[in-house]
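Can't paste images in this forum, so I'm doing it all in text. The chain is below; anyone willing to post the predicted structure tokens underneath?
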Amino acid sequence: MRFFQLEANGTNVRRELVAGVTTFAAMAYILAVNPGILSAAGMDKGALITATALASALMTILMALFTNYPIALAPGMGINAFFAFTVCGAMKIPWQAALGLVFYSGLIFFVLSISGVRKRLLSAIPRELKLAITCGIGLFIAFIGLKGGGVIAANPATFVTLGDLHQPGPWLVIGGIAVTAILVQRQVPAAILIGIVGITLLGLFLHTTGPDGKSTPITPTPDALVALPASLKPTFLQLDLAYFWQNWRVCLPVVLALLFVDLFDNMGTLIGVCQRAGLLDVDGNLPRIERALTADATAAMVGSTLGTSTVTSYIESAAGVEAGGRTGLTALTTAACFLLALFLNPLIAIIPAVATAPALVIVGIFMMQSAARLDLADFTKAVPAVLIMLTMPLAFSIAEGMAIGFVVHAALLLGIGRGREVSPFGYALALLCLAHLIYR
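Text version of the structure:
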């Protein structure tokens, strides 16, 4: 235990173990949500459950040993929806090629982390646009949850409308959102997980009626409680690295979108969680931040080889920090829980979409709270920010929302004679985004 410097960090083994389990309880929902989202791209759900648990465990171990921070990693929310519904769905890119794009985004992130260019790139994007991207992704995730849970449905006249409230599924989603929100407000560490488990159990006793009039239980009965992990073969090393070079005009904006979302998410999570843990120095900087970002970049690359979308640091690590976690031993404990979860595949596989939908909505609301920090009184900031937040869910694409926001931001400041406020990096990004919108 000398490696973790427990005494120097004001903690002990018992506190670290409890904190690690607390972190796992707060983020275990990803074991059900991530496979549910990525399977929409045509990927094998059993392999996705294994890939999610294994990638989370391995990359959390890397973070623990490389930085000694209580930060856990898992496939990122928002990025997985972008992967499945935009890249693979709307853009018709095969999921194998999409995994290759995740790998390239991680590789660029790695180079930026060790070269120092990362700082210049981040400073080129105004604070309001960074916050708007987070909010837009939150709206996107919440919309996906409402749609997947049947609360929102397609309509040829109005595009969207309320779902069929004569079915029990949408009511389970609405009730699940309310109950999960209550648990979150009461600061129950496993609030989201409890919501998922509760709705899954209720689904065993409730039936839904299909278009053919056939009634089926919302939650199917599992064949077993525990079993060996599902084979990783359908997704392991299936990434297609050649597709990018054959279709670089289409793929480059996707890689950049993956990179920026991962970069913003990581920076915000690392600073936020470590500040709460008292790990920042007197100047408000995070020691060993380059190591942490390098670990995150490596996580994206390794996750793509296992068969999942971008693996990133999780804000739910704050739950473990609140429980007293201060070192990498907390993260190692969380990783051990993910490894044990590999054997719960039969239970995870039966979790229905209506059970994970409230989790998506609640996570989306968490991300939308960044809107409170937006300065919308300044019209030059409000225009691109609101466009980003509106376009992401309505265009069903994180990349398109970012592209329109960056282009309008640069054009607006240039048009009112404040073009010098946009850095050369900012103009380069705007031109890349403009080319993407024209030639998409």
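The CA atoms of residues 9 and 145 lie 39 Å apart. The longest strand covers residues 152-155.
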